[in-house]
Amino acid sequence: MSSAAAPAAAQAAGETPEPARGKKKLIIIVAAALLIVLLGGGAAIFWLKKRAAAEAGEEGTAAVQAHKEEERVPPIFVPLEPFVVNLADKGSERYAQIGLTLEVDDPKFAEEMKLYMPAIRNAILMILAHKQSAELLERSGKQALADEIMREVVRPMGIEIDAVAHAPAPQAAPAADEEAASAPPALPRPPVHNPVRRVHFASFIVQ
Length: 207
What we know:
The chain has helices at 6-12, 18-72, 107-115, 117-129, 133-137, 139-152, 174-182; strands at residues 76-79, 83-86, 95-104, 196-206. It is an alpha+beta fold. Strands 1, 2, 3 and 4 form a four-stranded antiparallel β-sheet that branches.
């Protein structure tokens, strides 16, 4: 048999040539390697997601725990002697007897307030003296009074919560007006922390 007829005879006998078998093995090896890489990558992604979820859960649990611990901290109250003051009603004499308790966020600040108590009481009396009975009898009026007291009781201690109102400037010359118009706008004042959290009314009598 000639050498040219040998491959044909091998194919007829059902035998695969050696190069074809090598290619098939190579394909199987590459496919197996890709499968291993894909499985490994999928497992790694699953593990990373699981770990991230666990860390997020731990952070959420820690935040909840910290919040609960913060809630368990007892509030700090500064009770004040009752105020008796004539109100600003026109045509009638009305007065109010009001007991207040201030809730603050720092025990050191509570102790410091005692040193400023005469000035603090004066600030509250000035607020009450300008109120009318109709204002104080409404719930909204009581809330407005509490908000105003929160702002004013810390002023004697150098804490300015609200912006100071200025009188309107006198009318200037046209050139000055142009300069003012071209000047950059004033930056808003950053918020100031108020150590007084709430104002609690211990008693509230208007007669």
